[in-house]
Specification:
CATH superfamily of the largest domain: Translation initiation factor eif-2b, domain 2
Radius of gyration: 20 Å
Number of helices: 12
CATH topology of the largest domain: Rossmann fold
Strand content: 15-25%
Largest sheet: 7 strands, mixed
Number of domains: 2
Structural class: alpha/beta
Order of helices and strands: EEEHHHHHEHEHEHEEEHEEHEEEEEHH
Shape: globular
Number of strands: 16
Helix content: 40-55%
Distance between the termini: 31 Å
Strand order of the largest sheet: 6-5-4-7-10-15-16
Length: 342
């Protein structure tokens, strides 16, 4: 399925807020519309956000009206800052922005900047597809026949250019004819598991059961869950990992029940500049996401609400980190240094 597409003069984005009831694509010709699409979670998931930002920057360059090189570059650098402010936790966003920034600084002719930015945005998109398929193949080696896999949030085609990280591993296992099942946590408050992961896997005919977030421990205790696989928005140098809020709780439960806990993350999600999870910026989102459900108020007026979008899972709770370059076993001992050197 297509999460996002470059159309030359526009960026086509699947509006994930409307799923699963409605499959609607929005075509944006202005970079500000792409910025809002990221902020409003029309498109979400660290790799997909990076792709969207790259395409939005390329779109901005095509539409800027300036014949002065310095002015043109200054305007573009301001636009880079606008995209950087959309979602602070997802490192793929800054990774993609930096790739576009290198081009802006390197080229000395406006037409070349425009052409090169478009080419780079398309490459980031195509590279994400290649990377996730390779990551999926690596992770498939950890999956056995009859495994029931628990996942949280949505780390699938909808969170990437079109294949997935955690769901990429699951897809690779399914494509290799392994008999597997998936339990998907609903993932409050945005319900990415219930709305998006279940929708993706149902379309792929992969057996899927949705459970509420507070049911995971119950099913682990029953012995049903054989593995937990989640995605990541940022992996620190020591192997600590930021992912959707609720992931840390699952890692504690998995450890208690001796269930392997895997993180599937492309190389672009690894952040060697962040020493540990304590240094990861956690995004706080609008409290209305908690107070309302599909427009219906579910929390009494005046009650205080917190809405952190992510939490940090310590490396000691992670069995392995699956990347396209290989599998980092025991990140508590190894951090991400091994894969950074390959």
């Amino acid at each position: 399925m297509d999460t996002i597409k470059w159309q030359g003069e526009a960026v086509l984005i699947l509006d994930q807020r409307l799923l699963p009831e409605q499959e609607k694509y929005n075509s944006y010709k202005n970079y500000k519309e792409v910025v809002n699409a990221i902020k409003e979670m029309q498109i979400r998931g660290a790799p997909a956000i990076g792709v969207a930002a790259a395409m939005g920057i390329a779109l901005a360059a095509k539409n800027l009206e300036s014949n002065d090189l310095k002015n043109f570059k200054d305007q573009l650098k301001n636009i880079l800052d606008v995209f950087a402010a959309t979602r602070p936790t997802a490192v793929n966003l800054f990774w993609a922005i930096n790739r576009m920034k290198v081009i802006i600084e390197k080229e000395n002719f406006i037409p070349e900047i425009v052409k090169s930015l478009e080419k780079e945005a398309v490459e980031i998109y195509e590279e994400d597809l290649r990377v996730n398929k390779k990551l999926g193949q690596n992770g498939n080696n950890l999956i056995k026949d009859e495994d029931i896999i628990l996942t949280h949030c949505n780390a699938g085609a909808l969170a990437t250019a079109g294949y997935g990280t955690a769901l990429g591993v699951i897809r690779a296992a399914w494509e290799s004819k392994k008999k597997i099942e998936v339990y998907a946590c609903e993932t409050r408050p945005f319900l990415q598991g219930a709305r998006l992961t279940a929708w993706e896997l149902y379309k792929d005919k992969i057996p899927t059961t949705v459970i509420t977030d507070n049911m995971a421990g119950y099913f682990m205790r029953l012995g049903l869950i054989k593995k937990v696989i989640v995605g990541a928005d940022r992996v620190a140098f020591n192997g600590d990992t930021a992912n959707k809020i609720g992931t840390y709780s699952l890692s504690v439960l998995a450890k208690e029940h001796n269930i392997p806990f895997y993180v599937a993350a492309p190389f672009s999600t690894l952040d060697s500049k962040i020493k540990s999870g304590e240094d990861i910026v956690i995004e706080e989102r609008d409290i209305e996401e908690v107070a309302y459900l599909k427009g219906q108020q579910i929390v009494p007026e005046g009650v205080m609400i917190k809405n952190p979008s992510f939490d940090v899972t310590p490396a000691k709770n992670i069995t392995a980190i699956i990347t396209e370059k290989g599998i980092i076993e025991n990140p508590k001992d190894n951090g991400i240094e091994w894969v950074l050197g390959n």
